[in-house]
Amino acid sequence: MKAYFPTKGEASEAGEAASQRKGLISALPVRRVDEIPYAQLRWIVGNMHVGTSDDDLKADIKGRAKSGMTANPDLLAQACAYALASHRANQGLVAHFRLEEAKHEKQRPAPKR
User: Fold this and answer.
1) What is the CA radius of gyration of the chain?
2) Which residue would you say has higher pLDDT here, 21 or 108?
3) Of 10, 16, 31, 48, which cross-links 5 as Cys (Cβ 3.0–4.6 Å)?
4) Containing H/E element for 74?
């Protein structure tokens, strides 16, 4: 059975939850496929709000998919997983910069009145 996950951690977590072999599961990276428009997916995801839910993101990608991709569920699953991975990266950047901003706010002296 094939399943595509945006991150290795999510793949391992799902494998542990579903495995009948005491958590032993293979999480392997997938080769890039020419039929998946990676740059377009990054652009689409980059223009979405980082708070967009995974389900809304997948629905948007599926709605934009060309007929060749929708005819191949495996290819569509890979495209959605790649889009989710890009979304996670964007969420991580926002979290990083918000933490940095909060850290700098704490270091600034209080304004004099």
Assistant:
1) 19
2) 108
3) 10
4) helix 73-107
